[in-house]
User: Fold this.
Amino acid sequence: MRRHSRHREELAPRAEQKQQTRQALLDAALRLVADNSFDGLSLREVTREVGIVPTAFYRHFQSMEELGLVLVDESFRTLRRMMRAAREGALPHEQLVKRSVETFVGYVQAHRPYFQFLMRERFGGVASIRSQIRSEIRLFVSELATDFARFPGADGWSNEDLQMLSGLIVGAMISATEQVLELPPRADADDVIRIAEKQLRLIILATPHWKSQPSRPQAEDAS
Amino acid sequence: MRRHSRHREELAPRAEQKQQTRQALLDAALRLVADNSFDGLSLREVTREVGIVPTAFYRHFQSMEELGLVLVDESFRTLRRMMRAAREGALPHEQLVKRSVETFVGYVQAHRPYFQFLMRERFGGVASIRSQIRSEIRLFVSELATDFARFPGADGWSNEDLQMLSGLIVGAMISATEQVLELPPRADADDVIRIAEKQLRLIILATPHWKSQPSRPQAEDAS
Assistant:
C-alpha cells in the first residue's frame, strides 16, 4: 500500500531512500503512540525505533509536531477515499445503512493505529494537532450534509438542520469507533455494527417527520 | 461546596486538616491537567502546587493513579446528582428537552476542568482511569435506558433497543460537551445548545415509528 507511484521511479535512489525513511518515521511514531499520548513521545524514541541518529530527523520533519500533523492528514485522506468509494456504489436504501456501517467498522479495524491516534489526540496535549483533527471532523460533517442536501426529501431542510443531522450521524459513528477500539484487535465487532446500524436507521426514520425551520431562530431564545 | 458536612465537626483538627490537604491535592491535579494529559503529570508537580513535600503525598493517596480514580469518581458523582434532580422536576415534554440540554450544558460550563479531564482521559495513557471512565459512561447509558423503559410508548421496546436509544442520546450529549469545551471558558454556548436540542428532538420524533424486534437477531447476520 505504501509503494511509491509510478512517476516516482525516475527519482534518484537517494531521494527514494529519503522517502522511505520519512515513511518509516511516520510508521514508527504511529506504532509508539499505540499506548501512549503523542506529547509524551520524544523525537529520540522515534529515531531510535527507525535506527537513525536523532539529528537526521530534521531532514524529514521540522518537528515532532509537524510529523503529527502529517499523521492526521494521512488518516483523513484514506478515510475520505473510502467514503468517496462508498458514495459511488448505489445500493437499496435499507442495505445502504447496513453496508456503510460494516464498511466503516471494517475500515477502523484495518487501520486501528490511525484511529487510536485520532481519537486520543482529539483531546491530546498538542494544540495544533488537536485543532487539525477537529477541523477535519467538522469538514467531514459538512461534506455529509452536502450529500444529504441532494436527497429527495431534503428540499425543505435548512442548512443548519442538515448539519445537525449529519453531526448526529458522525457522532454515532465516532461512538462506534470508540467501541471498536475498546475491543481486542481481532475481536468480532458484530454487536457494535448492529447497534450503530439501528441508531442510523432510527435517525433516518425521523427525517420525514422533521419540520425544518429557517436557520437560527434567535427569537425563540428569549422565552 | 467543599465544606465538610455537619457530622464532621467532631473530627480532631488534625483529621480536618488532612481532609483539606487531600482535597487540595485533588484540586491541584485537576488544575494542572487542564492543558496536559494526566499521565504526563508527576506527583512532584502536584505536591509542589499544594506546598507539601513529595513523600507527604502518600498520607493521602497510594499513587497518582489512585488520585486520578478519585477524580473520576468525584466527576460522576456530581453529574449523577444533577441528573437525579433533573429527573424529579416534571416539565411538559417539549420544554423538557430544551431545559435538560440547557441544564446539562450549564453544568459542563460550571465544571469545565472535570469534564476536560474526563473527555481527555477517556483516551488517556492510564488504563485503569480510562476503563473507569468508560464503565461510568456505560452505567450512565444503562440508567437512562431504565428511565426510558418507564415511558408510555416503551412497552414494545427490547432492552437492546432501549440501550441503543440511550446510547445515541448520550453520544449526542458527549458531542455537545466536546463542543462546549472547545469554546473559550465564558463564551456563549447558545449554538451548541440549539443544535443538541434539535438532535434530541429529532431522535424523539423517530421513537413512535421504531419497530423494536427481539434482542440480538443473530439470524440476520448470515445474509
User: Anything to note?
Assistant: The CA atoms of residues 38 and 53 of chain A lie 20 Å apart. The interface with chain B takes residues 35-37, 39-40, 119-120, 122-125, 134, 160-161, 163-165, 167-168, 171-172, 174-175, 178, 182, 190, 194-195, 198-199, 202-203, 205-207, 209-210, 216, 221 of chain A (CB under 8 Å).
